[in-house]
Amino acid sequence: MKCTVCREPACIDLRRHNSNFCSEHFLKFCRDQTARAISDHQMINPGDRVLVAVSGGKDSLALWDILLGLGYEADGLYIGLGITDYSDISKEYAQTFAASRGAKLIEVDVPDTYGYDIPNGSKAARRAPCSACGLSKRHIFDSVALEGGYAVVVTGHNLDDEAAVLFGNVIHWHTEYLGRQAPVLEAREGFPKKAKPLVRLGEREMAAYCVLADIDYMVDECPMSAGNKHLRYKEALNMIEEQSPGTKADFYHGFLRSAADRFTDLVEEGRSALGQCQHCGSPSPAEVCAFCRLVERAGGQRIELTTKGETHS
C-alpha cells in the first residue's frame, strides 16, 4: 500500500476517499480538510480569538492541535464535571497537551464553582446524565466565551457524531433540531458563535491523527454515556459505511446542501420568544433558565462565573 501523494509506504487507507496516505501527507490531509470546512462554512474569520472546548479526548485535542498549526489564536476550555475518576484523568490529558504546546487552558470545575456534580446533580434534578452534562457545558461555554471576548467557540464534533445526530433527528423528525444541525450557529444576543470544524473528518481519522501527531488522549468513553441512543445510531451507520464507504459523508453533507435551509425558520420562531433569566441574565424562554433550575434542583449555588486561565509551557 503506497501513499496516493508521494508513493512512499502508506500507514492508513481512507476508503471513502479511495486514497492511502503516509504519515506526513495524512496529517496534511486532516489539516486541509479542517481548513476547508472552516472556509466553506465561514466558521472563523481572520483575527478571531477562538475558544476550543476540550474534553481530553481525541477529537478536541486533535482539533486544538490543528487550529494551532493553522495559525489561529486558539485557547482551550476544560470543564470538570465531577464524574468519578474519569474527570480527573481527562483533565490531566488536557493539561499535558496544553503544556506541550505552550497553550492557554482555561479550567472550570463544576463541583467547586456551582456546588454539584453530574452523577448526583442529574439524579436530584431528575435529568438524564447526558442532558445535565450538555446543559451545564453549553452554559459555561457561553459564559466563558462572552466574558473572555472570544469570537467563536469550537467543539470537536466529527463527521460520525454529526451523522449520528442527524440520523436520530430524521428518524424521530425532530424538526427544530434539524434546523440547528448546521456546522455553524451564528452569534446572537447572549450567545457566542459556535462551530464544528471537524465535520469533514471521522472518528477513525481523528484517532489516527493523534497517534501520528504524538498526542496522548483519554481513550475510555464517559461512564455516564452507557445506553446513549446516539451510540446505537453510530453503530447502525458504521454497518452501512462498511458496505458502502462514503455513506455517512453523503448523508450529512447532502443534508446540508439540499435540506438544511428548509428547517431554519423553525429555529428562528423559537428564538424570537427568548427573554432573560432573572438570575444569570442568560437568554431564556422562562423567567429562570434551564441551567439555573438545574443548579437549584441539584442543591448547588448560583454564581457569576469568573474564569481563570492557566498558560502551560
In short:
By secondary structure, the protein is an alpha/beta fold. The protein has helices at 23-40, 58-69, 84-101, 110-114, 118-124, 129-148, 159-172, 175-179, 203-212, 229-243, 247-258, 264-271, 290-297; strands spanning 12-14, 19-21, 49-54, 73-80, 104-109, 152-154, 184-185, 193-195, 275-276, 283-284, 309-311.
Q: Helix fraction?
A: 40-55%
Largest sheet, strands/sense/barrel: 7 strands, mixed
Write down the Rg: 20 Å
- Number of domains in the coordinates? 1
CATH superfamily heading: HUPs
Order of helices and strands: EEHEHEHEHHHEHHEEHHHHEEHE
Could you characterize what this model shows?
The protein is of the alpha/beta class and 313 residues long. The chain has one domain: Rossmann fold, CATH 3.40.50. Helices cover 49% and strands 13% of the residues. It has a seven-stranded mixed sheet with strand order 7-8-6-3-4-5-11, sandwiched between helices. A two-stranded antiparallel sheet has the order 1-2. Strand 1 and strand 2 form a beta hairpin. Helix 2 crosses helix 9 (203-212), helix 5 (118-124) packs across helix 6 (129-148) and helix 7 (159-172) crosses helix 11 (247-258). It is globular, with a radius of gyration of 20 Å. The two termini are 39 Å apart. The relative contact order is 0.16.
Could you give the topology of this structure?
Layout: E1 12-14, E2 19-21, H1 23-40, E3 49-54, H2 58-69, E4 73-80, H3 84-101, E5 104-109, H4 110-114, H5 118-124, H6 129-148, E6 152-154, H7 159-172, H8 175-179, E7 184-185, E8 193-195, H9 203-212, H10 229-243, H11 247-258, H12 264-271, E9 275-276, E10 283-284, H13 290-297, E11 309-311
Parallel strand pairs: 3-4, 3-6, 4-5, 6-8
Antiparallel strand pairs: 1-2, 5-11, 7-8, 9-10
Helix pairs in contact: 1-9, 2-9, 5-6, 7-10, 7-11
